[in-house]
Write a structure and sequence with these properties.
heterodimer; A: alpha/beta; Rossmann fold; 9-stranded mixed beta sheet; B: alpha+beta; 3-stranded antiparallel beta sheet; 2 helices; 3 strands; 31% helix; elongated
Chain lengths: 227, 77
Amino acid sequence: MRVAVIRFPGSNCDQDALHALRDDLGVAAEYVWHADTSLTGFDAVYLPGGFSYGDYLRCGAIAAQANIMSEIRRMADSGAPVIGVCNGFQVLCEAGILPGALMPNLGERFVCKDVFLLPGRTRSAWTQGASLPLRIPVAHGGGRYTADAETLQRLQNEGLIAFRYSTPSGELTEGANPNGSDQNIAGIVNERGNVLGLMPHPERATKSLLGNTDGLAILRGFLAVPA
Amino acid sequence: MYTVRVTVRLKPSLLDSAGRTVRGSLVAIGFEEVQEARIGKVIELKVDSVEPERLKAMCSKLLANPVTEDFEIEVVE
């Protein structure tokens, strides 16, 4: 498995992602610049967090027009794993690869803390064996997931909600929702299940030395890397 | 050369968290009559030619997000 970690001007979780993939998951990972035009030789894509293009216009809007996006679209269509974290999730939505949009947090504050996540009813088994809810950090100002009523219903009915914000004891309450996302949505997958977008940062929770390895379950499961 | 003004607004059905904060601030400094504030964007473009279909494409492809925003195009001069 060889993972492309995409870098845009303003990406800032690219190094953490590469480190987590290489050192904690033990897979090959390389940076790919947004202006590049090929992902030949890669088996998966990781769109890292950050503030691409200074969040100008809308979070992820400019990055969604980058050269490399047509290759990412090709990979997504081919069934390869594509994961977008935080700004990466925003980019996937802006590019129309995932439905819906991410808006400024309801409280108009940047939220930086651990949150708790319950997997939705999804077809992928990336949280198998992990103790739930998962504890994963978030760090974002624009993480309020929204979509039209029809899309939200479809996500719910087809099991495409990957993660929901919960309390530490696993209750889906309004208070557990850090940004006002519709239905406490923290992450979604596409219909085929090979494209995952989520606001929380699994790459920041991959080391027992740092007190949290819950992110490993998500990354290993999604990329199908054996433990 | 023409000037085109694109106004991008949040869809009325969506909560404008920044607008809500601005409304709160207006009320706090004594403008209690303000019931709501909604924030949009104005983007002025200088273009060589005015082609409605191309202007619409600029808006739907980049300037506005069709999921959350509506846009209006106005040729100013």
